[in-house]
């Protein structure tokens, strides 16, 4: 084949004829192996290009079968021909499709799918659209002559091309497939279901029933990969999820779990984790729902917020008794051989399914993954971190397991700090780290977070989604990292660019983050006011969680205080759905109201107080103390309930399970000392009660009481020495969404 003679079809001068060149391409595709080494693979690609160059002038003279073989060899070698060469091949092949049988048509479809993997612009190549349409027409005319495996490969190739044929073509395909189901082996049945799932195609009832019959009869012959592929198809084909089928399927999986490979186990667990939120539960012969990961108690407002865990299904998938434990034991036996991708996916799926992992299992996971951390991709590392966060793995400090976990975290930080990230990847890493419980500050340092944030200094913030930007804000707040001025400026500009694209929880995350680490010099107060006005227009979308977080963050914004109208609309939204609020969420609402000295109308306030009174026993001691301090400023004479004010006596008894700290009593004394203007109006409602106008305390008496309050502060070592309440006395007086506060010092 190295002769330099003529490339004519005769080959009389010692050169190869066109059919012989095609045969050389086919044999080269058979013997070349991508895993055989880079040098050998590069040489195979170079040889194929030389053969194709010699074939170019003879392409019009090739027969139909030779064109099919040439396209198949080119695709199998993962070679990307030029657009002109591909257009010529498709143009020559299109009029000859009517001569092809089912096998050749399937080969052409699979070749196009492989070329699409190496040439993403394949669909824009001239003549490709016409060629694909002619191919589908030829397949439909010969649909009855296809074998079952050819039909499955055909639909799989179309799924790889992301091309879904019209409904009439799919109906004809389904009828042909139904007639061949009894001849298919388990791998073919599983691949057929997966192809339907990839195309998002819901088969008709007759085809689904026929699939049931064949899978039931051949289920004992399904191996681990077939079972995993079938489970993956379930996540899309919801109509195939039937309770009797799931019971038999999971029973077969349970018997064959000891034979599962790491990859098959990861695919199976991931499919079941994605299937769980759809409520596919089995009432018969099922175990109790798996225990959910323990929830964090509401955080102290002066500390960092708790990590937000991934949402756990409200009604998890009910698996057979002990099924998750068996799957975890199988994974435990594969820890040393599983790939990083299979290991991280399996752990994430177990956490989503609610598996109550014991510390010994998680310790083995940490030990097995430590030497493989440098070889993990970013997505695999993020999934592993999120799984450990969902399992709430936090060994007691000082124990050997805690030392191993800290060493593992140090290696994670070292590996993560040496990589380069796009903005979305950086957010994923920080978000995953922020979810870990008891994260040591000496390991995840500010220098490490700043290193990860280098990518955000580029003009890429506007290229991410609003959810990614909100996740970044939430992560930085959880990690207690205070960014520099440049980052704050870029962050606020990006938030302003997409301020109408956030979801309610994302609005709350951004506002809380601005309240945590922003400062008036870096954040324009007028922009924050406009941002609050945008949020005000979307109050009807806010649920209890986002609304309570939003109020806590809005009242702590630097240099800005929400106005009376903004607070009135927010509180009205809370009152409209007060029954859905937990005690902790209602506590956050009342604390926010006290921070800006806003008292809602009596009827609205009565609704809020009724809800918090009914659920007061659910509050932690810290929340009870915080709520008591808020009510001393919101409710006139709250601490004097025993002196004839019995309206809130039951609430006081519920909140005083723990002894009220001196700080709360001091706050009440300062409130009663006249530091606030008696009868001051906020939204038409007096915030503080006092003598009627003209009969109030004299200035000398007020000054004397302020001096007494200062003496109390000096004795207790608390307060700021100004006689002002802890809220700082910030009062918004505007009737719009918010007003800037001049001269307000930012509090960390």
From TrEMBL:
Residues 280-315, 670-748 are annotated as: Disordered. InterPro entries: FAST_kinase. One of its GO terms (cellular component) is chloroplast. GO terms for molecular function: RNA binding. Residues 280-289, 698-707 have a biased composition (Low complexity). Residues 303-314 have a biased composition (Pro residues). GO terms for biological process: chloroplast rRNA processing; mitochondrial RNA processing; regulation of mitochondrial mRNA stability. This is Uncharacterized protein. The lineage of its organism: Eukaryota, Viridiplantae, Chlorophyta, core chlorophytes, Chlorophyceae.
